[in-house]
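Still learning. Show one?

>
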Amino acid sequence: MKLLIIDDEKHVRKSIRLLVDWDSLNINTIEESQNGEEAIEILKSGEPDIIILDMMMPLKNGMELMDWMKLHQIQSNIIVLSGFDDFNFVRHTLQHGAIDYLLKPINPQHLEDALKKAIDKRNESRKMKAEHQELVTVVNELKPVYLDKLLSNLLLFPDTVINNTMNNDFLELCHTGTCQVTVTNIDLVSNKEKTAASVIELCNQYLWERKKGYVFRNIIHPDEIVILHWNDFTDIDFILSKINQLLWDISGDQLEFGLGSPTAFPANLSTSYKEAINSLKHCNLLMSSSSRIHSGKTSFSTQFSSLGFGEYKEGLRLAVCSGNTGQIRAAVQKWIDHLYTKDHITFMQYKWWVEEYQLAKQMWIEEFTNNYIEELEPDQKRDYLPFPLDQNRKFSLQQLQEHIIDDLIVCSIKIIKYQMNSNNVIHEISNYIRKNYQDVSLSDIANQFHLNREHISRRFKQEFGITIVNYVSQIRIDKAKVLLLNPHLKIAEVGSAVGYDDEKYFSRVFKKLTGLSPTDYRNNESTQ
């Protein structure tokens, strides 16, 4: 800590230095000043933790100096020295929050007690300041989240009551006047989270910092990003074009934007939002402009018509099952030829089709692999189909055709590969073990497949690089990990459920394979 002694008498300053064991009080820096004016210059360069202040000094006395410190918000803890037992001095001292008022000559014990009191108060002040700063940090971090939630509610629930100070403060951060809403949907991009972060950061750097608008993710519909433009709507095309240029450069993606009408904020925010959503959902992708900004209404029949994919699913299913690339191309061509007859493909029609296509493909995989999807590689289970754009960044049926063909060929290869492996008796044994892991032995397997036990053991190890015993143990422990997430199941019950009737033996095997006892594993998972 740092101490400043302010007294016009040199021998008093020297006495104070000698009267106290400063090291024991953790005071490692001591400065001196012989009058109030000199003290002010020192205080301007840095605030000490504790000040020992004489009341009667030339140029500026102690009362005047305390007035100056209060005016300039000096937070040092003050101990006053005086040769006068004067009521006015004492009252002034108390009014300025001084720690103590000591009379000269100085009593060493009284000085030390006052210093300890000042140190305790200073430490408490530091602690409170740190806690306050931590709270401020948390509040600042939560402000965007709270604002996003408030605005999300206003979009969908126009009757939202704004009746407290915090809500009004947040809305004042935004704007009071006219607002225009733009909405985009990130459901069809390659990386939703990365895209959302990029769009929000780019827009808010331009709009929020210039007090022209605000961008947020709709908390109620997380695939939607909402852009609010305030008063000045001349740069909407500019900012949206910048977004799409950025996405094109990073990932090859593009976004479609629905634009609402200018309206009063926040009273009619939901009106502009609904218009923007309508414009986005029913925009014609086949006629999308380079700006990809859409506004206006669409007819009822166009809004709710489908793309007729159901009529072509069976042909695609059989082509995938055949494993023949030519058959897949031909089946996809029929579907694309049907799309070429249409003069409208809306954003929502395309989005619904993607969902229908992914669901159909998932069903084919389950059908052709006997529901054993685990055999497929992780990338085959992804639900992303690239948005079909040509080199001019326009929606392209030709690109859509190529994406579907590539996707289905990869899917078909994986299915055929699985089917070939499933015909291998060792893979059949693997499936048998997975289904009967709770109570299975090498003798059971040998009897089931009419093979020699030694031959099964040798071939299994060659194929999978692991013994059957260890394979069974690994399956059991993997299942046990899932069961351990249920806090109501006893360890013995978990062990019994996966095939171990002996709790101690189960715990020993579990720790051997995971490095943790079942209890430790459960505790670790519960804290994450």
Summary: DSSP finds 21 helices and eleven strands in the chain. The chain has a mean pLDDT of 84. The first helix runs from residue 10 to 19. The two ends are 41 Å apart (CA to CA).
